[in-house]
Design brief:
Distance between the termini: 56 Å
Strand content: 15-25%
CATH class of the largest domain: Alpha Beta
Largest sheet: 8 strands, mixed
Structural class: alpha/beta
CATH architecture of the largest domain: 3-Layer(aba) Sandwich
Length: 339
Amino acid sequence: MAANLNQNRHNDPQWRSVFVQSTFPKNLEDLSKLAHNLWWTWNCEAVELFQEIDEKLWQNTQNPIAVLKGMSAEKLSKLEQDQAFINKYNNVLKKYNEYMAVKPEANSSRIAYFSMEYGLDDSLKIFSGGLGILAGDYLKEASDTNTNMVAVGFLYKYGYFKQTLSIDGAQTAIYNPQNQSELPISPVTDANGNRIMIQVGMPGRLMYAQIWLVKVGRIKLYLMDTDISENRDDDKSCTHALYGGNNENRLKQELLLGIGGVRLLEAVGEKCDLFHCNEGHAAFINLERLRKLIKHENCSFPRALEIVRGSSLYTTHTPVPAGRFIPRRFNDDVLRSIS
C-alpha cells in the first residue's frame, strides 16, 4: 500500500513560481532597470522616456513596467533604430547611474523605518492616504539626501479598497487585486536562490512571510507577504488588504510589522542603529528588540530598556488626547508589563 501511495505521488503536479522577463536589445537593455526603480516617479525626463514608448498605453496605465510588457516586437525594433529616442534613453540612464553611484557615508547611522503603508506611486497600491504619502515622501527625500536608511512594510494583494457609491448613495468598498507581474518588486533570495522567509509565532502555529524588495532611488524598501503555501488560509489573508479585516487580523498585521520587521532586517543582513516607527502600527519593534538584547546579548532589562529608548524614533499623526495612540504612555505600560 505504501509503495502504491508513493508511486501515485510521483504523478502529482509540481507547482513552482516562474518570473518571466522581457529581453531587450543591447542598446536598450537597461530599460527594465529604469522601470523597476521608483526613481522615475520623481524624474520628469524618465517619465517622458516611457511615455514616448507608447503614449496611449502610458496614459492607460501610468506604469512603465506595463508599458514595456505591452510593447510589440515591431515597436521595439523601431525604437532600436530611433536615434533621438536612443539619445534620450542614454541621457536618462546616465543621470540614473550617476545618482545611484553616490553612497552614504561609511560611518553614518543606519536607520530602519517602519510603516503600514507607503504612498510612492499608483503603480504600487500599498497606501490609502496622508500617512502613506508622508512615508513615501520620507523615502524619496532620504534617497535624494543620501540618508543611510532602509524601510519595512507590507506587499498587499489588494491594497486599499476603491470607494464607489451605490444607487441609493451608500459607500461600497471594492478590492481589486494587483497584478504582481507589473509591480516594481523582486523576490529576496539567499545565495542559493531560495526565498528568504521570516516567521512570527501565533497561538499554536507559526505564521510565515516571504520578502520582496522595492527600490526607491537609493533606498531599499522590504515588503512582507503572507499569501504563501506555508500558511493556513486565515494567515494568508493577513497581508491581503491595507487596514482590512477584523481586530484579530489588525493585531496580526501589527505583530508581523513590528516583530517580523525586526526579524526581516536580520534575515537580509541589515544592521541598523536607529528604529523609526511611523505611527503606532509597528510598536512591537520595541518588544522584539528588548527580547533580542536580553536573550542574545545578555543585557539586563534596565540596560536593554535604555538602549531601545535611546535608539527609537517615532512619528505621530494624532498628537492630541483624543487621538488613537499616546506613544509615551503606551510604550511605558507595555514595557513594564514584561519586566
